UniProtKB/TrEMBL annotation, chains A, B, C, D, E, F:
<feature type="disulfide bond">
    <location>
        <begin position="24"/>
        <end position="39"/>
    </location>
</feature>
<keyword id="KW-1015">Disulfide bond</keyword>
<dbReference type="GO" id="GO:0000326">
    <property type="term" value="C:protein storage vacuole"/>
</dbReference>
<keyword id="KW-0479">Metal-binding</keyword>
<feature type="binding site">
    <location>
        <position position="147"/>
    </location>
    <ligand>
        <name>Mn(2+)</name>
    </ligand>
</feature>
<dbReference type="InterPro" id="IPR019780">
    <property type="entry name" value="Germin_Mn-BS"/>
</dbReference>
<feature type="binding site">
    <location>
        <position position="108"/>
    </location>
    <ligand>
        <name>Mn(2+)</name>
    </ligand>
</feature>
<dbReference type="InterPro" id="IPR006045">
    <property type="entry name" value="Cupin_1"/>
</dbReference>
<dbReference type="InterPro" id="IPR011051">
    <property type="entry name" value="RmlC_Cupin_sf"/>
</dbReference>
<dbReference type="GO" id="GO:0031012">
    <property type="term" value="C:extracellular matrix"/>
</dbReference>
<feature type="domain" description="Cupin type-1">
    <location>
        <begin position="53"/>
        <end position="199"/>
    </location>
</feature>
<comment type="similarity">
    <text>Belongs to the germin family.</text>
</comment>
<dbReference type="GO" id="GO:0048046">
    <property type="term" value="C:apoplast"/>
</dbReference>
<keyword id="KW-0464">Manganese</keyword>
<keyword id="KW-0732">Signal</keyword>
<keyword id="KW-0675">Receptor</keyword>
<feature type="binding site">
    <location>
        <position position="101"/>
    </location>
    <ligand>
        <name>Mn(2+)</name>
    </ligand>
</feature>
Amino acid sequence: MFIHIVFLLFLLSSTSHATVQDFCVADLKGADTPAGYPCKPPANVTSDDFVYTGLAEAANVTNIINAAVTPAFVAQFPGLNGLELSAARLDLGPSGVIPLHTHPGANELLIVLQGHILAGFISSGNIVYQKVLKKGELMVFPQGLLHFQIAVGKRKALAFPVFSSANPGLQILDFALFASNFSTPLVTQTTFLDPDLVKKLKGVLGGSG
Amino acid sequence: MFIHIVFLLFLLSSTSHATVQDFCVADLKGADTPAGYPCKPPANVTSDDFVYTGLAEAANVTNIINAAVTPAFVAQFPGLNGLELSAARLDLGPSGVIPLHTHPGANELLIVLQGHILAGFISSGNIVYQKVLKKGELMVFPQGLLHFQIAVGKRKALAFPVFSSANPGLQILDFALFASNFSTPLVTQTTFLDPDLVKKLKGVLGGSG
Amino acid sequence: MFIHIVFLLFLLSSTSHATVQDFCVADLKGADTPAGYPCKPPANVTSDDFVYTGLAEAANVTNIINAAVTPAFVAQFPGLNGLELSAARLDLGPSGVIPLHTHPGANELLIVLQGHILAGFISSGNIVYQKVLKKGELMVFPQGLLHFQIAVGKRKALAFPVFSSANPGLQILDFALFASNFSTPLVTQTTFLDPDLVKKLKGVLGGSG
Amino acid sequence: MFIHIVFLLFLLSSTSHATVQDFCVADLKGADTPAGYPCKPPANVTSDDFVYTGLAEAANVTNIINAAVTPAFVAQFPGLNGLELSAARLDLGPSGVIPLHTHPGANELLIVLQGHILAGFISSGNIVYQKVLKKGELMVFPQGLLHFQIAVGKRKALAFPVFSSANPGLQILDFALFASNFSTPLVTQTTFLDPDLVKKLKGVLGGSG
Amino acid sequence: MFIHIVFLLFLLSSTSHATVQDFCVADLKGADTPAGYPCKPPANVTSDDFVYTGLAEAANVTNIINAAVTPAFVAQFPGLNGLELSAARLDLGPSGVIPLHTHPGANELLIVLQGHILAGFISSGNIVYQKVLKKGELMVFPQGLLHFQIAVGKRKALAFPVFSSANPGLQILDFALFASNFSTPLVTQTTFLDPDLVKKLKGVLGGSG
Amino acid sequence: MFIHIVFLLFLLSSTSHATVQDFCVADLKGADTPAGYPCKPPANVTSDDFVYTGLAEAANVTNIINAAVTPAFVAQFPGLNGLELSAARLDLGPSGVIPLHTHPGANELLIVLQGHILAGFISSGNIVYQKVLKKGELMVFPQGLLHFQIAVGKRKALAFPVFSSANPGLQILDFALFASNFSTPLVTQTTFLDPDLVKKLKGVLGGSG
């Protein structure tokens, strides 16, 4: 029955090899575009391009927030290029805090793996939606809205947020205000915070201007 | 030459009337969907559905920020439904300020029409891009990033921002923090602001929790 | 400084409440559309709409494949509607297998949480990309391509796949061929499998035709 | 080997039945949305929903243009809803002409099946790209640009254009100008055509105003 | 409280600098792609990249249509690349006319800033939707449909149209027909206009063929 | 009336030439991106770039399946780049079969031109939707689902499938399983097919591993 099927092999698959773009592993040395990076030549692609091991180890959380964010965006994991997905790892020590932040370019789905995490976001209508999440529970944060995660109780916590873009972005509110070159008079005018407070925080976080 | 062309009229256009959706004016009484509102029946659509006059008049700016934002989003201007565009009107008195805010769902292009406006945004990399804009000048603010506008000098100012969505959203930082039900301990934990300051601002702006 | 800012509150936020669609929690009783379900009225939305607890417990894997898939798609987790994200839980007993399958509507990013999982996909060019993944490692599977996961070693395994759509779909190859109403002659003609084998598998899996 | 696989059947496929939206056959009685019509309940969908026979017969071309266009858009073929594809049938008698027209909502790929067709489009840069196409040849027309098809020689011709939308739209230039309620003074002002000519063509094609 | 927060600075923001693409200012020397131009290296981007001053001055309208269109598309304003927005400036002298035209790649929202403008579009169903717009009023024109703007009364007029694409395109009907290389016999066949008229208009507008 | 209109020509069209991207003919020597290939310089584009003649001739079907697929995807027809459309030609001898396959990246609309074709697809819910199609009839296959075409009766058949992407992909089930480097133990584990059968088919189709 299959004696001559080898003819088929040449007929169909010879063309399909050249024409199909199933994936577009990023060539990070090429210039980015609005749709992502140019593709690595398919012939050079290996299984390793689709695998990322950089989130396997816990990050050091011996810092003021008792927490760390480790990204697996397209810049770290080029196989995500064009696939509208990415991930990160959140390590939180006891009472660790991921401060208020937004992802300008993606929705987020948080998967809690260890500990208890109080997570929440603030809507455009100024309503806070928040919940304490346990192991195996999920919470979704719509794109561009301020949100936070806090380890509750005395245990450390672990979560993997995933994103609807290979390049979700990350704007941390305190850094935008106090670790940037946003001048103190402008911060004051656009937030109504006290100039002395702004200067103090900029001193700590390294802001200028 | 055109004697029998009337036949064509029936042949072609009789079908095209029923089948074409050039536009989808929102029926705001219908349930919204992720792609927008259901369409008003085409037979009920008139020229007025594509026109909006609600931005023609200057808004009252006798308030603490000497400024006002008047939106022409899909909820005000149903003809925008599904068209990936909307607008607003910014009125700024002398030294008027539009405080730090984001549009979670759209990029913004600001068209300055009167006065001098200092406008800027903060990138994910914590760099401020800002410029004083004069009449007829444009500035673009990428989606989801914190930005602001301030009237400079002693003159009032006017600008029309336009957006890449019929429903761009608007999250005002001070309102998210201090006019919401975001509890003082959580604001403090996720921003490092002083609890006394947070309570004071919540008192003024009406926040609870 | 903030004495009169309450004016601002009314000026800006009164309009923003009505106009902003930050999210569109599915009303599953409404008719689906190509972009997702109609939105639940925002006034009825609570924090619980953004949280899903149905993946917290391990599924029963006492079946022939020693494995189970538990979905958290929009039908289970309505808060995902329109957000281009979803998740599932893979429980694998020792040597458990998730048979060859595709997701017609989404890319997949697999996060391995326990055990060792051999995962792989087959490209249009008939190349298999596969790898043994350990705890905390990620692998991405481009949309629509056949892929599989197998627990290797004598330990059970756990993974959370996430998807670039709230409704990724799931076509399991064996079910499509042998648990459907796909007639034996047609299966045979379109796969070159032996009719006796097809009949036997249909008997086991419940296929008809 | 497959003795207990029936367990798997219940485990996996019971959930997948309810959750998967592979398609969204239009319920044309429901209100349209920017993304298409609401879906017919999946349980009522049959094979016939995915098939359209309305292009099988040649249309009558005994009219002034010796030609006819028969659409298979979503309004005729509800199975196309949400699938970003549609088709039409062009019948051209000898020297038949499909007059200048645009599809505001889709790119077009023309497949010539019989006869010789001179087809072309005009770019924004005012360059005409045109070619005589024979049986089995294809030509692509980018979205929104004026284009035409003419049967050349003494033979009739047949072609199937396909579109990158289920609802591509069709604006025929002569009808827009002379079969609409576009007033003669406005046609004249916006096209520089002579008022007498405009009135004459409106008389023939049925325009008003 | 913030003594050690400097640790956080290194922990989080060192990675975020490299990985985030908030914007993609066009490198116009690079090859365009279907999604836009490649990005200028982020380190070379300055505030000026997000600002465009080329629409600030009125254009000369001493021409036959008493009008001028000045574009701020991605080719003029590279900061718009990938942001799905652009703008233009319409200057109209008394009775100035922007002739019938389409934007093949974008919806348009017109903002009238001075004078009275009669604006309208023709639907696929051959219905004209038109209105006289005053200062501060908006009108929306769906993608790909013929539309026009005319200054009414004895005053000059000014408007800023904005578009839902950084590259909306512009096909002016008279130019497509009479300023292109579209041959007179083909214009005649596909529009039913008189050959003598076509030749005359081509003579004036510079068409060939 | 048109004496001075030549002024207009310079005013408007001089800018529009440079700025408009109506199309993006692929430069196949450039690196692909997630949105397609870089564009050939517009000045080098000719009518031939929009035309493809490679589907005009019947393919040889003297092979085991009595059938052949000839693609006109972007790799063969660069003018399709970015236009979300492509096509192919199916030649089927008497009883010819296009075996079960998927297009991971596109929906398909099949246009039958000759003979009788039994076509069908299998949904995620394991339901087969199938029909015998005659000349001029259409059937649509949603993205990523297994489907097939078979010439019924003693006549040969011809069809043109079209796709909602310039790069739809093609995964043929038998090739994925038996013509790839998918190892026999893994095929067996993930499909429940018998190892002897798998080895036999791999021998015929050239699979390894």
